[in-house]
Specification:
Layout lengths: L2 E9 L3 H13 L5 E5 L7 H4 L11 H4 L15 H14 L6 E3 L1 E9 L4 E8 L4 E12 L23 E3 L14 E5 L3 H10 L5 E6 L5 E4 L4 H9 L2 H25 L1 H15 L21 E4 L2 H7 L3 E5 L2 E4 L3 E4 L4 E3 L2 E4 L12 E4 L2 E3 L6 E2 L3 E2 L5 E3 L8 H22 L3 E4 L8 E3 L6 H6 L5 E3 L10 H10 L7 E4 L10 H4 L3
Parallel strand pairs: 1-2, 1-6, 2-3, 4-17, 6-21, 7-16, 8-9, 8-16, 9-12, 10-11
Antiparallel strand pairs: 4-5, 5-6, 13-14, 14-15, 17-18, 19-20, 22-25, 23-24
Length: 499
């Protein structure tokens, strides 16, 4: 079996992978790279999800790439429009020519003697084994398991005579016209599905265990569309991007400094969009805004569906599925023909790949993240992980820029190995994500840790990350550099725990 060698191996051809391709060929033009994609097409999330109404829950002026303006009128875009944008970006910059489809990464082994990763891959339906060798491994494969969404156990599931499906694997030919539908969940997927399915279904019920904070905003950004009429597209796009970034940072900061006030502000606006006298208990969470992800309702569509009677919200706990629907623990029964389990994702960092460093197995949960993208004791490996309180692409852009700076620094200094080393005894371990969302809490034991101070702290703040990743020192004392041949030191703290 032959081994194909490249300078940088990128895994994943979604937003992060395409972003990585652009940055590598722009800022590291002498470096060769290949993008491995396990699916048949590019797009990541925007290729996988096909459920009705699939759309962004971030505006496209921040979810779009910094280098390619979003020019459509709708800032809250549907899935097919986003996929088209990604496809055109990859094509126009020649990134699509670097993508290898149906290449699934299984194992990656680092060898300090050669300063290279050896990556084992399975190609195509026959799972043909291939090997790649790379100086740097850049994981851009997202944050959840593409093979399977999360569905809890429901007693009596086999008794239900209708259809049960998860949004992550939506059947193309599903006919729900004139049928009664229950969507289990209250996150972004449920909030998208309910008003869209209500257009054709007899009725749609959103069944939630507990409420989620929601905000409504127009699908079109009038300021962005106005700026585009009088300014060059790149200038208009840049101004709109910063407008939205700054407002998002301001709003998030207010949720930390005045949570009660922000909570009430959000609830007052939801109340104004609901029918007179509607029970606000269905929209009043027990936590503060941005303790979990905030749900976006474009053009009031969910609230309009509730007002016109095509949809409603029920809060309660499921006792069991029955032949004709769902029975709640309080005795209520919801009759339906279709059940959609919009119950969340299975978080999966680094694509579930098996990693070794100089023969030693690496468990991500036993590492600490450096600048939220690299791992203590693990050389020449980075991952792209977006913000939980803002657009994914804002952080992906900065991560890609930093990876290029790191590679160029090694070239400049004649070194081949860059390893974050936790050598500050004052750094305390903290959970990597502070979200209380179920999908995060279920995965915390498998996630790396973050530290209590820079550069191990996960900021969730674009301005701080911009200063650190684009303008901060690469050789900062925590990032160590050496030449090929020197093995990873066994004394590197977080690595020892992985043994």
């Amino acid at each position: 079996m032959t081994t194909e060698s490249v300078d940088v191996l990128v895994v994943g051809a979604g937003i992060s992978g395409i972003d990585a391709g652009y940055h590598l060929q722009t800022y590291c033009p002498t470096k060769s790279y290949v993008i491995l994609e396990g699916r048949d097409d590019l797009g990541g999330t925007w290729d996988l999800f096909r459920y009705p109404g699939i759309r962004s829950d971030s505006d496209m002026h921040t979810l779009g790439f910094s280098f390619r303006p979003w020019k459509e009128a709708k800032a809250i875009a549907d899935g097919p429009s986003i996929k088209k944008y990604l496809r055109e970006t990859a094509r126009d910059y020649g990134i699509d020519k670097r993508i290898r489809y149906q290449h699934r990464v299984k194992r990656a082994a680092w060898d300090s003697a050669t300063a290279r990763w050896t990556v084992e891959v399975e190609r195509g339906p026959e799972r043909e084994p291939l090997t790649f060798s790379a100086s740097f491994l850049f994981m851009c494969s997202g944050y959840y398991n593409y093979a399977e969404g999360f569905t809890p156990h429901f007693e009596g599931r086999e008794d239900f005579r209708g259809e049960i499906l998860h949004p992550q694997h939506w059947p193309e030919q599903l006919d729900y016209k004139g049928k009664r539908v229950v969507v289990i969940g209250s996150g972004a997927t449920a909030v998208t599905l309910v008003p869209e399915m209500a257009k054709d279904a007899a009725h749609v019920t959103m069944l939630q265990r507990s409420p989620t904070y929601m905000v409504s905003r127009p699908a079109q950004d009038k300021i962005a569309n106005g700026l585009r009429k009088v300014l060059p597209s790149k200038v208009a796009y840049g101004l709109t991007r910063w407008k939205n970034v700054l407002f998002g940072m301001y709003f998030y900061n207010k949720t930390r400094t005045n949570p009660e006030g922000v909570n009430q502000w959000v609830l007052d606006r939801v109340k104004a969009l609901l029918p007179e006298g509607y029970d606000m208990a269905h929209f009043t969470p027990s936590y503060n805004v941005w303790d979990q992800r905030l749900c976006l309702v474009p053009d009031d569509d969910l609230f309009e569906a509730i007002k016109n009677g095509s949809a409603d919200v029920v809060t309660g706990h499921i006792d069991r599925f029955t032949e004709t629907g769902i029975r709640l623990t309080d005795g209520r029964e919801l009759a339906c023909d279709v059940i959609v389990t919009a119950t969340g994702l299975n978080l999966q960092l680094l694509s579930g790949v098996e990693y070794t460093v100089d023969g030693q197995r690496i468990e991500p949960s036993q590492t600490m993240t450096y600048k939220a993208m690299m791992f203590s004791g693990v050389p020449n490996l980075a991952t792209s992980f977006g913000y939980t309180n803002a657009s994914w692409t804002l952080k992906a852009d900065l991560t890609c820029m930093y990876v290029c700076r790191l590679i160029n620094h090694m070239d400049k200094t004649g070194t081949q190995i860059a390893t974050p080393v936790l050598n500050d005894p004052e750094v305390q371990e903290e959970p990597w994500l502070s979200f209380t969302s179920g999908y995060v809490q279920r995965a915390l034991g498998h996630l790396p840790k973050q530290g209590s101070k820079r550069p191990w702290k996960v900021h969730q703040n674009y301005a701080k990350d911009l200063l650190d990743l684009k303008f901060g020192k690469v050789d900062d004392g925590a990032m160590t550099f050496r030449k090929a041949g020197a093995p990873v030191r066994s004394a590197e703290p977080m690595l020892e725990a992985a043994e």
